[in-house]
């Protein structure tokens, strides 16, 4: 399916105004052609009239002999016919009979006059000469316009681009925002047509920020308030398991303790998620610091992982606590839901964690960063690990990328976090 290319408002307005400018000029040219044709006809007709009058005066005063050595200027043609129909004087070919006054015959503009003595005087010029005069006059106007048209289009493009600068600035600001950045838009001056949209976006983001803040506060408070009773209940279950003499009661106490531990881990993950999604997204850039030791400490909690670290200090502009949380959740996700080999690679500005396992469906892959999304795994995870990673990545200005199969392999799963430099 062919994808329609994105439209540009600057390009569309420039082309629209430019085509309109050319269309108006062509219409003016057509009108000018018609008006100029009429004006040229009037000028040439007046010249024919003056020539006819002079020839008539000369012919009347000097007779045919006086006209013999006088020729009309340029491409003019003339013929004097006596009353008996005999041609007395002729220059060029003219139609034999033409009506009195002006007429167009055989590509000529002919003026026919009846002389006082009964003779007939015809004076004519070629219509092609008139059309040539119109063409040359219009061409003298067309050439400068054609040469200046690219400059006019460029000036129009610059003008449109300058007028749309506030629109482009607002578009860039919205596009550059992270998904969790709900701060109000900048208060730059905008045209009155854009100000309502700017204000509406600010109000929408404000309401969304309040709703998300309330949701985070509820999750954080609920998880925090649950930790104490969960810990107390877990202690009682473990005590009951240790003191139980009935095997069935001991198994039930053991199952209860396991479920309470799971609920405790879930409460801890909810607290982590609330911290990850709280605060300003993509805030001030952290000072570069060596992250190798933090990654080594986290990887040491998972003995089955294969860790690849640079030999020299590896500096990243990231908060160390956030980096440790990201690394722990990525490795824990690989251990719980994947199979060996599990590799952790720190190189350049990226942290990559890969594991073996079945290839994931692309639709499912795109949903793994949602809360409580475990995919097809039956492992006892919370379904919050990748959501926590994405939350911290957004706050640090980093990008999380998921891939399945793992690059260079036919199976498995890879999660890559690219930190800002």
UniProtKB/TrEMBL annotation:
Its subcellular locations are: Membrane
Tell me the ranges covered by the Histidine kinase domain, including all copies: 221-421
Among SUPFAM superfamilies, the record links this protein to: ATPase domain of HSP90 chaperone/DNA topoisomerase II/histidine kinase, Homodimeric domain of signal transducing histidine kinase
Q: Give the record's keywords alphabetically.
A: ATP-binding, Kinase, Membrane, Nucleotide-binding, Phosphoprotein, Transferase, Transmembrane, Transmembrane helix, Two-component regulatory system
Q: Which CDD domains match?
A: HisKA
Does the keyword Cytoplasm belong to this entry?
no
Which reaction is the catalytic activity of this chain?
A: ATP + protein L-histidine = ADP + protein N-phospho-L-histidine
Q: GO cellular-component terms in the record?
A: plasma membrane
PROSITE patterns tied to this protein: HAMP, HIS_KIN
From which domain of life does this come? Bacteria
**Classification via InterPro entries:** HAMP_dom, HATPase_C_sf, HATPase_dom, His_kinase_dom, HisK_dim/P_dom, HisK_dim/P_sf, TCS_sensor_his_kinase
EC number(s) on file: 2.7.13.3
Where does this chain mainly localize? membrane
Q: Where are the transmembrane segments?
A: 12-36, 138-160
Glycoprotein among the record's keywords? no
Q: What class of enzyme is it?
A: transferase
Quote one Gene Ontology molecular function term.
phosphorelay sensor kinase activity
Membrane topology term reads: Multi-pass membrane protein
Q: Where is the HAMP domain?
A: 161-213
Which named protein is this? histidine kinase
The source organism is: Paracoccus suum
């Amino acid at each position: 399916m062919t994808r329609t290319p994105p439209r540009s408002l600057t390009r569309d307005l420039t082309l629209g105004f430019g085509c309109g400018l050319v269309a108006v000029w062509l219409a003016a040219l057509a009108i000018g052609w018609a008006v100029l044709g009429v004006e040229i006809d009037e000028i040439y007709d007046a010249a024919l009239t003056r020539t006819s009058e002079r020839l008539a005066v000369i012919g009347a005063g000097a007779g045919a002999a006086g006209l013999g050595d006088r020729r009309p200027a340029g491409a003019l043609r003339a013929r004097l016919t006596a009353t008996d129909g005999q041609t007395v004087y002729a220059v060029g070919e003219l139609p034999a009979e033409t009506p009195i006054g002006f007429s167009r015959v055989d590509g000529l503009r002919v003026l026919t006059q009846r002389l006082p003595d009964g003779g007939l005087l015809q004076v004519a010029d070629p219509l092609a000469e008139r059309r040539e005069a119109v063409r040359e006059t219009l061409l003298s106007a067309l050439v400068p316009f054609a040469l200046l048209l690219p400059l006019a289009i460029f000036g129009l493009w610059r003008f449109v681009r300058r007028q749309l600068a506030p629109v482009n600035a607002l578009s860039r600001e919205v596009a550059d925002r992270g998904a969790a950045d709900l701060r109000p838009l900048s208060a730059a001056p905008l045209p009155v047509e854009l100000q309502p949209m700017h204000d509406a976006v600010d109000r929408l983001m404000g309401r969304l920020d309040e709703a998300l803040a309330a949701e985070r506060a509820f999750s954080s408070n609920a998880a925090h308030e649950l930790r104490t009773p969960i810990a107390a209940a877990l202690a009682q279950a473990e005590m009951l398991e240790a003191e139980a003499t009935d095997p069935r009661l001991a198994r039930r106490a053991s199952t209860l303790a396991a479920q309470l531990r799971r609920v405790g881990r879930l409460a801890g993950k909810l607290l982590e998620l609330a911290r990850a999604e709280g605060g300003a997204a993509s805030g001030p850039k952290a000072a570069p610091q060596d992250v190798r030791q933090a990654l080594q400490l986290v990887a040491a909690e998972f003995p089955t992982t294969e860790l690849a670290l640079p030999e020299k200090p590896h500096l990243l502009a990231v908060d160390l606590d956030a980096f440790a949380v990201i690394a722990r959740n990525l490795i824990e996700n690989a251990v719980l839901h994947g199979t060996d080999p599990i590799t952790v690679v720190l190189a350049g500005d990226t942290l990559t964690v890969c594991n073996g396992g079945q290839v994931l469906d692309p639709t499912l892959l795109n949903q793994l960063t949602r809360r409580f999304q475990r995919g097809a795994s039956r492992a006892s995870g919370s379904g919050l690990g990748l959501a926590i990673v994405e939350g911290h990545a957004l706050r640090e200005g980093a990008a999380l990328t998921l891939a399945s199969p793992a690059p260079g392999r036919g199976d498995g799963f890879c999660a890559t976090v690219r930190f800002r430099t």
